[in-house]
Amino acid sequence: MLGAGAMGSRWIRAIWQPFRDRMEFAALVDPNPAALHEAGDWLGLPPAARFADAREAFATMDADFCCIVTPPDHHREAVELACGRGMDILSEKPVADTPQACGAIARAVKAAGVRMMVTQNYRYTRRIVTLKQALNELGPVNYAVARYASDYRQRGDWGMFRHEMRHGLLIEGGIHHLDQLRNLCSADCETISGWDWNPGHVRGEAAAWRSSDAFDAEASALLVLRMTDGSFASYEGNNLATGKTNSW
User: Is the dihedral of CA 209, 214, 216, 222 positive or negative?
Assistant: First the structure.
């Protein structure tokens, strides 16, 4: 298991818990000592099965598969290490943080002949399953609109790495929302166009308001999608929302 922080802890304590009668943790990796030992103690892992470095863990421990729950910029290394050991992979979304890393992961998985799945669990929440059933009864979707608005104007409110990365809104948030449009439209995206941006960067250093200082890069997005069945969708995403929010 790679990652024992905020989301990794949730995987360890909630997502994997129902399967404890069929699986056991071989090792745990996290560079944060506090997170590593808190989760390790909860799992009852010996010190020899706790690692700060993924390379050392893969070189030392045997396992049937690995689960990756780390920031996106660490996914490529983890996948390549797993492929080197012939391990199947279950990874938190997204595939990776850049198109280049995604391509490298695809090539590594194919060359190693392992299986890799990237989770998109929002499809299976009760409210979305109910909405999907209602849409199936009503008929084909003509036009879908998705609006996401969170107030993360305080730096670190959304996890510090998301405030520091490029395209954080789309990679860490929009990936859920765009997949949800695919799910509800029952079609894939054929073409997509639009923008993501940081308002403060657009307005310049002399801007009267600087709420975008919370993010180093893109915090807002507007996109239009044409789906493979001819339907359309639009997406509005904003991590600098004020007033009424429409978040997770």
Answer: negative
pTM for the complete prediction?
0.86
The backbone torsions φ and ψ at residue 42, rounded to the nearest 5 degrees and listed phi first, read: -60, -35
Q: What homologous superfamily is domain 138-238 in, according to CATH? A: Dihydrodipicolinate Reductase; domain 2 (3.30.360.10)
Nearest to 1 by CA among 98, 92, 76, 86: 92
Tens of pLDDT along 180-205? 999 999 999 999 999 999 987 555 55
- What CATH code is assigned to 6-119? 3.40.50.720
CB-based burial label for 2 (10 Å; 0-12, 13-18, 19+): buried
Residue 108: C-alpha distances to residues 58, 116, 141, 155 (Å): 16, 11, 37, 35
Place of tokens 């765009």: 178
Domain spans of the chain? 6-119, 138-238
pLDDT at site 208: 45
